[in-house]
Request: fold
Amino acid sequence: MFCSTISRLFLCPLATVLILYAAISHGSGIESITVQNSPSYINISWATAAGSSWDYYTVDVIKSSQRSVGGYPTNTIDTTHLITGLRPEEQYTIVVTPWTTEGAGRSLNKTVTTEAIAEGDIFVSDVTSSSAFIRWKPVAGVFFYDIEAEPSDAIEDTGGIFKAEVGLTILLPGTVFNVTIRGGSPVMDVASTQIRSAPESPVNVSLKQTGTTEATLSWTPPTSPHDAYEFYVINNSTDERSITTEQRDDVSDNEVTLTGLSPATIYSFGVGSVLNAMDSFGLQRSGQDDNPTVYGRTESITVQNSPSYINISWATAAGSSWDYYTVDVIKSSQRSVGGYPTNTIDTTHLITGLRPEEQYTIVVIPWTTEGAGRSLNKTVTTEAIAEGDIFVSDVTSSSAFIQWKPVAGVFFYDIEAEPSDAIEGTGGIFEAEVGLTILLPGTVFTVTLRGGSPVMDLASTQMRSAPESPVNVSLKQTGTTEATLSWTPPTSPHDAYEFYVINNSTNERLPTTTKQRGDVSDNEVTLTGLSPATNYSFGVGSVMNAMDSFGLQRSGQDDNPTVYGRTGDDTGNAVSSTLHYTLLLIPALLAVFLV
Reply:
């Protein structure tokens, strides 16, 4: 702390230099302090030298024990300050110091003694939910006192009191009650006042769940009166603190979600009770030492899941910047869902095609051109199937797999389809799952699960089978940068075609081209943007467009026909696929002839 009197300047040379420099540059400092006091507070104001300019002030209130009231000085930009919670007839030293960004100016001290309690007044201090301390001005000729409360069960009986002060044990938290001091002979009322006890603390605080930037707390409220709750959040790494207040009626089921947190950070969470300011009573809080606290860590990855998908979002460290992310979803078998990680520039990702009640580990890795950052991992179990639902998976043009929640008292099930020829009959089913053989590709049909005695409908859903693949794909011709394909379309319903092109030398997959069925004449398409003199694999698949609740569906990749071919060189010497391979055979035939 900087020195504030000339007698101490030699003991604090650095402070002396800073104060003198500030005084020369910005004015000498504090010129005067004015005080208005009472038994419990001191209201101070101060004046600075004419022409001086200061950014802020520190106000320290030091008890006779040389300890600061409140533990440390208070910062303010005003030139007035109210100091509360003091005791009557006690001496305090007030120190006001002006500051700029360059340092402190000349401080000024003032010693003040709080006023005595007026006759007939009761001074109340240290009020909690279970105790308070009261003092009063001694009454001449009265040697002992008695305390009466209204209601009478608000405090414990104090018995005879031989000093002009006493500690009260409060029995009614969060309650307004009257206290009357009586004494003398004959006994008479000496003084009277109202007291409002502080609220009790909540209990049983728990951390229900955390996200990347939020946490949900629950607690058991006190049974005694209270108006609101305060939520204390402390970052255990930086000691940064924040307080949020919610009125009791605004908190449903004694649960609150606190936002604005940092991801992957350990926090302390506390819950306290509050009585709002009312009449002559200021805001009162439950005891900080009694408020329950719980510790928790925010997530790196937030998950929203269902029986068939997991929707994830993630957060990275503040100030970090990444070019893209890889998302890998690993089954309990340690194999990646989809075979390999997915690249994305977003911080959200939807993972579909999962099975209910299965465990998956999600691994998110951030990347820049210089390499990978620290990965984020989270293990998630997909939800169970809800009663009355049918979970459909692995839908192709010829098969699907369905699951459902077992029904109590039903020991075997039957499946009906509409139209009835959409699937093969399944016969009796003794487990809550079955594979379906689909007979109508590219078709919407209804599946109904039946069972019980008497037999009744248990669940129903609509399905759309995937389209069949085209057949007989051929490479009609190639140029230096293009190739023309033709194929025989499937006879079952389909809306469009997708064309897959793979560079066989680099294994580079060109962007998939999609053509609506009506935009393709004579089942023929010319693909452009190829490289000269390069071997390619060309594939054709069928597509059903997204419709109503059905997403886009593709024919099976393994069933789609593929053809191989080579583009012409950059001199324009393009060859047809047949001629190209015929020319390749000539040297081999000559070799056989010569042998």
User: Anything to note?
Assistant: Confidence is low (pLDDT under 50) at residues 1-27, 574-595. The domain at 203-297 is CATH 2.60.40.10 (Immunoglobulin-like).
